[in-house]
Amino acid sequence: MHSGSTPAIEARGLAAGYGRVPVLRDINLAVRPGEVVALLGPNGAGKTTLLRTLAGYRRPTSGEVRLFGEPCNRVPVHRRCRQGVSFMGEERHIFPGLTVRQSLRLVRGGPESIELFPALARRSRHRAALLSGGEQQMLALALALARAPRLLLIDELSLGLAPLVRERLLDTVRATADRGVAVLVVEQNARAVLSRADRAYVMRRGEIVDEGTASRWLADLDGLAARYLS
Ligand SMILES: Nc1ncnc2c1ncn2[C@@H]1O[C@H](COP(=O)(O)OP(=O)(O)OP(=O)(O)O)[C@@H](O)[C@H]1O
């Protein structure tokens, strides 16, 4: 962990919602370069809303988001993207009509992009639309990484995917952070994500109700589930 460095992203007293309906309240968090930080919480806790607000798709109603040390509440998504923010939402951002190889070429991904996932390399001439869900998510991650992000915001990394695919995706996420990228990731399987994460925040009803090191949570997974995730 790089506790001394400027956070890639930071929220201070952040609130956001939909129309007049408040969802997020007083969110304080920071993710530093080199860290994998897990965002845990039951359905409806506000994880997606938080990621989308951090990515710039929703404007905070109060509080502040700082990107690489600079206030960014009014910075639009495309400028955040240019600064190195990559957002992987629940819907997979792939190009259905292109093959794996064409997709990676489009985002100027080098050969290493495809080598990330051997399963994908074997499918390089297949159209993305015809890949399995797991292969599509590998492609979405490879496309996100090909843009050399400095901050990755990932929602529901492995929803509906096989355990082996989940492990492969999470290993890649960990390796990405080890190269200096900051990662904030929502993942249903707490054990799987915590075993690669540095820290975790737990959300409930729009608030961060707890936080700690991944090793602390891993040592008490049952307590975590009983207190917060059920
Ligand atoms: N487009 C929307 N309009 C109005 N309310 C919304 C909208 N999207 C989400 N909400 C509400 O915001 C709250 C938080 O939802 P959000 O999707 O952020 O939670 P989540 O933790 O990501 O849950 P899940 O794991 O089910 O995706 C919920 O009460 C939800 O009903």
Labels describing this entry:
binds adenosine-5'-triphosphate; 10 helices; transport; four-stranded antiparallel beta sheet; six-stranded mixed beta sheet; amino-acid transport; 230 residues; alpha/beta; AAA+_ATPase; Rossmann fold; 2 domains; branched-chain amino acid transmembrane transporter activity
User: Residue share in helices?
Assistant: 25-40%
User: How many β-strands, per DSSP?
Assistant: 10
Tally of helical segments: 10
Low-confidence stretches: none
**Associated small molecules:** adenosine-5'-triphosphate
* Estimated radius of gyration: 17 Å
* Average residue pLDDT: 92
Strand fraction: 25-35%
Q: Structural class from helices and strands? A: alpha/beta
Which sequence of strands runs across the widest sheet? 6-7-8-3-9-10
User: What sort of overall outline do the alpha carbons produce when their principal axes are compared?
Assistant: globular
For the biggest sheet, the summary is: 6 strands, mixed
Multimeric state: single chain
The CATH class of the largest domain? Alpha Beta
Q: What's the SSE pattern?
A: EEEHEEHEHHHHEHEHEEHH
Domain ABC transporter: 9-230
Pfam family, one: ABC_tran
GO molecular function: ATP binding; ATP hydrolysis activity; branched-chain amino acid transmembrane transporter activity
Protein name: ABC transporter ATP-binding protein
